[in-house]
Amino acid sequence: MGLADVSWAFSEDLSGAWVWGALGLGALSILLLALETARTERRRFLVLASGVLATALLLAAVLRPVAVSLRANSVGPKVVVLLDGSTRLLIPSEGKTRRARAITAAKAISSTFKDARVSVLEFGAGAPYALQGEGEGGSLSVESDLTAALSHLNSLAQEKPQAYVVVSDGRLSRPTFDDDLTRLKQLALGVPIHTVSIADVDPPDAAIRAVHAAGAAVAHQPLSLTIELGCSGGLKCNEIPVEIHELRYGMPKALLASGVAKLNQDSGKIELQVTLDRAGTRVVEVSIAAPSGDSLPENNSRVIAFTVTRDRIRLLHVAGRPTYDVRSLRMWLKSDESVDLVAFFILRSTEDETRTTSNSELALIPFPVDELFTEHLPSFDAVVLQDLDAVAYHLAQHLPALARYVESGGGLIMVGGPTSFTGGRYAGTELERVLPVRLLSSEKPFDLEQFVPSYTDSGRAAPVLRGLRDLFGDALPEMPGANILGAPRENALVLWEHPRKKIGQASMPVLALGEAGDGRSIALGVDGTHLLAFSELADEGSGRGFGALWDGLLGWLMRDPRFEAARTELVGECSEGQPTTLMLTRLPSMQGDVTLTLERLGVTQVAPIVQRIPNPPPGPLKIVFSDLKAGGYIAKAKIGSAPPTRYDFACERGGQAWSDSRVDPARLDRIAKLTGGRAVAASGLSSLPIPRPAEVAAERRVSALLPAWLWSLFAAIVLGAHWLLRRDSGLV
Amino acid sequence: MRCIPRHTFLIGVAASLAAPSALAFGQAGAFHPRMLLTGGATWSGPRLRAPERWGWELVRRTSAPARAVCKTVRASDNRLLAEPFCVWAGEGEISPLTRRELHVLGRFIQLGGVMVVDDFEPRVGTFGRAARRELARVLPETLPVRLDPSHVLFKTFYMIERPVGRVVGVDHVDAIVRGNNAQVLFLGHDLLGALAQSEIGEWLFETESPDPMFREQAARLAVNIGMYLLCSDYKDDQVHAPYLMRKRAAR
Fold first, then answer.
1. Structural domain boundaries, residue B138
2. What does the pLDDT read at residue B13?
3. Domain count, chain B
């Protein structure tokens, strides 16, 4: 619809100062003329009138008045519907989901405001986006941050809407009920925010509302977890049992703590202490036993990934006899401030003759094998067994526990020597299954041939040996024999191999890395790595070769990112039913096919999900998985022939978004009132006020009333008449 | 040279039979007191077999392996850098170290090697003083210090009250300490003299004290030095501290 509006103005080539100056001068002239005409009686009014007219015409000649005509168009009002895009809206509500009801309401708003320009956006954690789908898929967010959505809309160079309509259950992430809503009012920029509440009845629900950790999780240190619980929708909850488990790979979940929370007025909290022994990402499940009648079992458990740090690596080093190899390893470990070393060396066997009459002459203590491998074993991050006979020193009875320790996330390095591996009577034991190589009890325990280990392709690609290769390239010291090691296990990689000795058709492994459950293990089938610390070759690297090797081995064992081929991280959150995106960032030197294998933590029959990307270009890779079920997951990324990188993460059904299922229409009411909007229920959309059409200026036209010369001519004529009248009245 | 009848030595012998130039698996890291030779010196005389005896004492008393055959190594030879231990022993004046010897010895110490300086005539002390003078040229920035009686050297295997060798000598051990490691031990006790035997196993030198325990104390010092080399400061670990303190208090 077109509208015309005409207004008047002076010529636009004159500044305001000139206009006001001219008007002031004219007013002064008229004032003086009035004073002058007061002295005469004759034709006073004619003189005055002609003077005023002449002055006005002179001013018109100078100011040149113009007519400004404005033609404008009006359009339908712009209305932005902001639909709550949180996964919380997937909570069931009266036979449907809240989301389905919200989408129905949004469509109804479009019908109600039929003359308006209605756009429907969803808002989650950041910028709002166009409604993508009506199902549970799409890009739903854990958050529903209205403040962030408005802030983003304000930042866009676009027409301001006449009204916002927020469709939600009211339990927004921001603003919270207790927030000062002044900020929201500022962000609305005077635009009313109407709200539509899509549900007004709380479901009967017992839920874990929140889990708070008191500080950072540090390995071996007790961590206090506060679990907030809530009960709503008329469900009766007095006491709720709570359990905390750690989810482990290939093993049943382990109970960390349990207790009973007492609820007062439908809410309560309980504090439980847990100790996570392994560093890295650990996935913990907090669960409650809800009373009968609970309609939302999905929020009775939370699966949370904790990043467990360690102040120092606590390492147990056990050696069967002291040698230069033991010395080199001990001295390197002791020199590393990040290692808390507990060492036990067998200094005397039962065959040795100490020639003493009393034990007090000896500085020896008994090897506390039982105490170490029962009571204290979980407190270590890694165990190094070096040339230790398992039977002679009574370790054999603890090998099953040691294997479980590795599968639970501990690290193990077995270092070669005459009494390591088969020579140490580890073949056929429980520990063998967590070693990266098989042990051959039928073979002799070691080979006496001197040799220089060869790097395999994996050894050349592995970041774990990069430091050593930077120093010496492919060169390694000559070893005086090797332990006989069998074929590598599944999930194991051989980094060094024997150049001549074969096991079956393949070269015999010398250095192999492997994954075993949640833990990692390393088999080093030689006892001569001290030659990287002290030898003519070592001198070429100023003795740094030994440190470079062991820094890599220990770092890889402890999942130090420096020694991983890639870094994997979750983009956003993992919610059941939603697409899950993992970002894989490879080291610059890492090339080759990428294989990402996703497996569930715990004991499961579910087949791994495998995605292969043949030789992708450099740069980060985004890999999307759909339809993940709730639980803990490990993602193993293998780049080319390098050892795989592991990343643990948690996936939840509902998660934080479902932790509080109560609706909050009061908050929507507050928002509407504060911004001048109206709060309605989904059934009351017709009561929403329809905004006025928006007027859009389309054309502006400026035209002079008369030409300047004509104003001047009229002014001259009138001035002449004025002169004659003045003369006639005796004023001249 | 004499083979030591112990299981660890047998491995070495077996390897020697299989490949005469090869060290047995498990023997490359075995205790090996190599005799350091400087200038035109040679290793001969009645103490010739003392290094093997040192290894033998270590093997029969402890779980540590030792080489059955001990070698000499010249200070000018890069092979000094092949292993982390050597013994510089002798008597009388020694010629100044050559530039090459200074360089190789410097690398040996820089890599973390351990050296024992043993004076055959500690009462005269000429060799000991000369060795200190020359080592001061190798490590001009580090002066020898007296090891405290509580130093780990005196508790690496045996609880030792004071060092002795063939002679009673001084009641302490001086050492060049770098970082936390005593890398050069100056013995004024003729330790090799106390360990020297003839081919038929007779002691070649009388000890200064006729007490049979005197030589035993010297052997214990030798064992402790060997264990200090192989285990470094293991016995200083916190886990051993209360136990060893109780033992000291009980003695």
1. 7-250
2. 39
3. 1
Whether the ω angle into residue B84 lies within 30 degrees of 0, i.e. cis, is: no
Say whether both A320 and A305 belong to one domain.
no
Residue B230 lies in a domain: yes
Question: A425 and A370, same structural domain?
Answer: yes
Whether B169 contacts B128, CB under 8 Å = no
Question: Are residues A191 and A153 in contact, defined by beta-carbon separation less than 8 angstroms?
Answer: no
Indicate if A503 and A626 belong to the same structural domain: no
Q: Is A177 on the interface with B (CB under 8 A)?
A: no
Measured in whole angstroms, how far is the alpha carbon of residue A85 from the centre of its chain? 18
Total domains in the fold of chain A: 5
pTM of the model: 0.74
Is A422 within the bounds of a domain? yes
The partner residue sitting opposite B22, judged by closest CB among A353, A362, A448, is A448
- Nearest residue to A298 (alpha-carbon basis) of A201, A203, A198, A199: A203
- For an interface test with A, which of B17, B27, B32, B63 has the most A Cβ atoms less than 10 Å from its Cβ? B63
Mean pLDDT by 10 residues, chain B (251 residues): 37 39 69 96 94 96 92 96 96 95 96 96 95 96 94 95 95 94 96 94 92 94 97 86 64 56
Chain A residues 516-555 with CB within 8 Å of chain B: 527-528, 530-531, 533-536, 538-539, 542-543
Which stretches does DSSP call E strand in A16-113? 66-75, 78-84, 92-93, 96-97
Residues forming a β-bridge with A413: A384, A522
Token reading at A577: 């039913």
User: Best mutation site among B8, B21, B25 for testing chain A: the one with the most A CBs within 10 Å?
Assistant: B25
One domain for residues A516 and A488: yes
DSSP string, A362-397: B------HHHHHHTSGGG-SEEEEES--TTTTT-GG
A397 and A522 belong to one structural domain: yes
Predicted local distance difference test score (pLDDT) of residue B89 = 97
Beta strand A2-9 pairing with A66-75: antiparallel
How would you list the strands of the sheet with B85-90, edge to edge?
B72-74, B34-37, B85-90, B114-119, B181-187, B174-178, B145-146
Distance from CA of A525 to the nearest CA of B (A): 11
CB contact under 8 A, A348 and B29: no
Q: Which domain holds residue A239?
A: 205-310
The mean pLDDT of A516-534, rounded to a whole number, is 94
Q: Output the pLDDT for position A138.
A: 58
Domain membership flag for residue B107: yes
Q: Which one-letter DSSP state was computed for residue A572? A: S
B92 and A CB contact within 8 Å: no
Strand segments, DSSP code E, in A248-312 are: 254-262, 267-275, 280-288, 301-308
Whether B230 contacts A323, CB under 8 Å:
yes
User: Across the A/B interface, how many CB contacts are shorter than 8 Å?
Assistant: 174
Residues A340 and A425 reside in one and the same domain? yes
Identify whether residues A595 and A469 lie together within a single domain. Answer: no
The larger pLDDT score, comparing residue A428 to residue A182, is at A428
**Does the beta carbon of A35 lie under 8 angstroms from any beta carbon of chain B?**
no
Same domain, A91 and A62: no
Q: Tens digits of per-residue pLDDT, A190-236?
A: 899 999 999 888 999 999 999 999 888 998 889 999 999 999 999 98
Question: Residues of A with CB below 8 A from B227's CB?
Answer: 322, 347
pLDDT in tens, A357-411: 888 899 998 899 999 999 899 889 999 999 999 999 999 999 999 999 999 889 9
Please report, as a single letter, which amino acid is at residue A693: P
Please indicate whether, in this complex, the C-beta atoms of A326 and B65 are within 8 angstroms of each other: no
**Among candidate residues A655, A676, A708, the one where a domain is terminated:** A655
pLDDT of residue B20: 36
Task: Please say whether the beta carbons of A81 and A691 come within 8 A.
Answer: no
Query: Can you give the pLDDT at residue A164?
Result: 94
Indicate which CATH number applies to the domain containing B167.
Answer: 3.40.50.12140
